[in-house]
Design goal:
Layout lengths: L1 E6 L3 H14 L4 E5 L10 H6 L3 E5 L7 E5 L4 E4 L23 E6 L2 E7 L9 H23 L5 E6 L24 H12 L3 E2 L28 E5 L1 H4 L2 E6 L15 E5 L14
Parallel strand pairs: 1-2, 7-8
Antiparallel strand pairs: 1-12, 2-4, 3-4, 5-6, 6-7, 8-10, 9-10, 11-12
């Protein structure tokens, strides 16, 4: 299986290049974030013509997640247990849920497409929401793997966190002053790893960013961030045989500000000693 995650930054604006990428790179499952449309607005026809089934979850012109697959999509969920909501004027647990998570079982693998809240600013209520959202995701992960330690689980998507200094090449993103690199955010990311997940890409792709701001020539200067991930449980990580960050997708006409992250899985031979060591 070839699995990719991509914050497409509006699927209706970029459907042609998204489908072209999926077909050209022989992607079996594509997890998308920031689709920026409701399900009734999603351009299904282009994906279906290329052999994909799509499930989409969006509430308005913001956020939104989707999964396109060449294999059947089963056990669909539009939130993980305990996922908090957010909206201006709401306090406490009754805030409405945003379209930020979609889980499905595909080819025996539990795959989540996740769009973690941005945080906006260190003194913004959205930052507190982001930390609560990540804490709930950690609890879900711990519970899922405690119930089934052999579960092949993948949390994919835009995490809006650069977990180490090596993942931050943007001079405007400064620890202690901006989101994405603050100690609490990095601790929340580490907590996901401690819950039983591994970064399945970095061991195979030692350098490279996944996002570059449109402003100030960030891409030509390679002043980017690595904030898009495929985090996997032990069972998932042990099946990973290759990975890539497709930097060239940031080029061309009207690209997304993110690029796809891809992992290749061999789920037929879990005891192969020649596999790269991820976990």
């Amino acid at each position: 299986m070839r699995l990719a995650t991509w914050n497409v930054n509006s699927i209706r604006a970029r459907v042609a290049r998204t489908v072209d990428f999926a077909v050209r790179e022989s992607i079996d499952v594509l997890a998308m974030q920031e689709i920026k449309c409701r399900p009734d607005q999603f351009p299904y026809a282009e994906f279906e013509a290329a052999g994909y089934t799509v499930e989409a979850h969006g509430l308005n012109q913001w956020n939104g997640v989707a999964i396109a697959s060449r294999e059947p999509i089963d056990d669909l969920e539009l939130s993980f247990p305990g996922m908090p909501g957010f909206a201006k004027g709401y306090e406490g647990p009754d805030a409405p849920l945003e379209a930020r998570a979609m889980g499905a079982t595909i080819g025996g693998i539990r795959i989540w497409s996740l769009y973690v809240p941005n945080g906006r600013g260190l003194d913004d209520p959205h930052y507190v929401y982001k930390l609560h959202w990540l804490a709930a995701l950690e609890r879900y992960t711990r519970d899922a793997l405690a119930a089934d330690p052999d579960l092949p689980l993948a949390l994919t998507g835009d995490f809006n966190i650069a977990p180490t200094d090596a993942d931050n090449g943007d001079p405007t993103v400064v620890e202690g002053a901006t989101t994405h690199v603050s100690p609490p955010e990095r601790a929340a990311f580490q907590a996901l790893l401690d819950a039983g997940l591994a970064d399945t890409v970095r061991p195979l792709v030692p350098t490279g960013y996944t996002y570059w701001d449109y402003k100030q020539l960030r891409f030509p200067r390679n002043e980017g961030l690595r904030i898009d991930f495929v985090l996997g449980s032990r069972a998932f990580a042990n099946a990973v045989v290759g990975a890539g960050i497709h930097r060239d997708e940031r080029k061309g006409e009207a690209p997304s500000d993110h690029v796809p992250v891809v992992v290749d899985l061999d789920i037929t031979n879990p005891d192969d000693d020649d596999r790269p060591m991820i976990f």
